[in-house]
């Protein structure tokens, strides 16, 4: 695999979350020598849609939005790990996506859902939103409680490590076609 800079997003901010464990497991499946970072949305600190202009304009004024845009532009691709809350993905993730626009265009984004239903509904909804902002959506494995991991975030032997590893290969392949985001 050609080395690409890939971010793994922890998309839950709940105090009892296991997202950091899921993201750590995904990180462990990355190819040896891969340039991979964890991005914890609870630490990013994005206010809710704070810029005066729409994200499509690209005229970001808020320092938090400018920093977020620079961070996303620095990656060749992302893996978003998402729990499923009430049939959807976390609001903090929706805000992180909606705060930007052009930065998502053509960006390869793999989705790894987790929960009692393997995060399938959350991953489906997330894929629809990412397609709207013109990201290249790459479905990843779903992690079901009781089969792939425990509700406490401990991984079981049946966890689909090969599928998670393959996601990095898919992102690298899709990144070759990615046009650079506008500065």
Features:
183 residues; alpha/beta; 6 helices; globular
Walk me through what this model shows.
- The protein has helices at 19-28, 41-44, 63-73, 91-98, 120-132, 161-175, and strands at 5-10, 35-40, 77-83, 108-115, 136-144.
- It is of the alpha/beta class and 183 residues long.
- It has a five-stranded parallel β-sheet with strand order 2-1-3-4-5, with helices on both faces.
- Helix 4 links the parallel strand 3 (77-83) and strand 4 (108-115).
- It comes from Myceligenerans crystallogenes.
- It holds the Pfam family FMN_red.
- This is NAD(P)H-dependent oxidoreductase.
Number of helices: 6
Order of neighbouring strands in the sheet with most strands: 2-1-3-4-5
Largest sheet: 5 strands, parallel
What class would the helix/strand composition place it in?
alpha/beta
**Secondary-structure element string:** EHEHHEHEHEH
Spatial gap, N to C terminus: 27 Å
Number of separate strands: 5
What share of residues is helical?
25-40%
Shape: globular
Query: Kindly state the mean pLDDT as a whole number?
Result: 94
- Radius of gyration, in Å, reads 15 Å
């Amino acid at each position: 695999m050609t080395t690409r800079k890939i971010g793994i997003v922890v998309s839950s901010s709940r105090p009892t979350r296991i997202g950091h464990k899921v993201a750590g497991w995904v990180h462990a499946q990355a190819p040896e020598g891969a340039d991979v970072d964890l991005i914890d949305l609870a630490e990013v600190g994005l206010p809710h849609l704070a810029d005066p202009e729409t994200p499509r304009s690209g005229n970001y004024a808020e320092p938090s939005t400018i920093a977020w845009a620079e961070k996303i532009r620095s990656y060749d691709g992302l893996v978003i790990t998402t729990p499923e809350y009430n049939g959807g993905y976390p609001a903090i993730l929706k805000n992180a996506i909606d705060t930007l626009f052009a930065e998502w265009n053509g960006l390869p984004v793999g989705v790894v859902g987790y929960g009692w239903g393997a995060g399938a509904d959350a991953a489906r909804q997330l894929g629809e939103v990412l397609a709207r902002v013109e990201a290249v959506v790459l479905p990843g494995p779903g992690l079901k409680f009781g089969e792939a991991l425990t509700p406490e975030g401990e991984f079981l032997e049946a966890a689909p490590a090969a599928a998670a590893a393959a996601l990095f290969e898919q992102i690298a392949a899709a990144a070759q076609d990615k046009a650079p985001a506008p500065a």
